[in-house]
Amino acid sequence: MHRAALPLLLFSFAIFANAQTADAGKAVQLALDGQCADAMPLLKQAMDQVQDADLKRKVGKGGVRCAMLMNQESTATNFLDWLEQEFPRDPDILLLAVHVYSDLAQLNSKSLTSFAPDSQEVIQLNAENFEKQHDLKKAIAEYRVLLQRAPDMPGIHFRIGGLILAEPPTALSSEEARKEFEAELKIFPKNAAAEYYLGELARQKDKLPEAIQHFTRSAGLYPSFAEAHFGLGRSLLDSGRAKDAVQPLETAVNLAPDNPTMHFTLATAYQRLGRKEDAAREFALQKSTAEKMNQNTKTLRKTVSGAPTESHP
Fold first, then answer.
1. What is the mean pLDDT of the chain?
2. Domain range for residue 250?
């Protein structure tokens, strides 16, 4: 290319870029003025053209706003996905996502209730709403109504079992929850969480062989489930099988390194096996993680209460 042509080419590109920026700015202003039908085509076009970070943010937020006003749910989520890719972990965009998905959830809930008021989906929605409101008895009642409609629906017996355990305990709570988790496994045998809860219920009643079986199945179904490995290791340790307990406890610690209870239990297993250095290391980790957890709790409480937090170097 001739040297004299280069400035002309750059000048032409600058004009083109300025035109794109102007179009994007116009689209944003139309969106702010509520002229979304005119703004939307320009906003979509600007997504692939605009380079300025601040203008990208305005284009994306304008697109989300207009799409929500125009009841274009998929378009709103497309703009939001684009923003999250352009601005990963950005607090402003994350907050926008919270509001958008919350609004979409409410809109779809209203649509569901309006168009299918007697459906099993509405029953499930009602149960979930009671659960969010911490009205656990009503939530359980709604889930049981749902099971009358759809007795083989996976996940419902599990949720009932969890809600029973979340209520103030009674003499029958453990047995009622156990029946629900067992019923869940008949419908969905691969529910690792149901296996875990059955293991925990058995462990609490000192039925260690039964607990070991359930925790083993849970960990096998979901290898990244730290609590399942921990339950297995703790049950083996309580059964006098410290050597067998080490592997699942080490796995649990690797999966959840900030859990002081897991470090303490692993240290105990090492201690019983005469592995003094390993035990000392884990006891030290138990102490440091407990202190860190305690400090985080204090910081959170001060933040919630509005009190000033201590500064650390």
1. 89
2. 203-294
**Is residue 91 within 8 Å of 84, Cβ to Cβ?**
no
Taking the C-alpha atoms of residue 10 and residue 119, their distance in angstroms, rounded to an integer, is 63
* Per-residue model confidence as pLDDT tens digits over 50-91: 888 999 999 999 999 999 999 999 999 999 999 999 999 999
Q: Please tell me the distance from the alpha carbon of residue 309 to that of residue 140, in angstroms, as a whole number.
A: 41
CA-to-CA distance for 143 and 165, rounded, in angstroms? 15
Task: Number of helices (H) and strands (E) in the chain: give both, helices first.
Answer: 15, 0
Indicate whether 303 belongs to any domain.
no
Widest pairwise Cα distance in the chain: 91
- The pTM is what? 0.71
**Listed residues 70, 94, 113: the one ending a domain:** 113
Q: Are 49 and 80 in contact (CB under 8 A)?
A: no
Is the distance from CB of 230 to CB of 252 less than 8 angstroms? Answer: yes
- Give the end-to-end CA distance of the chain in Å, rounded to a whole number: 58
Q: What is the domain-level CATH number for residue 121?
A: 1.25.40.10
Distance CA 118, CA 129 (A): 16
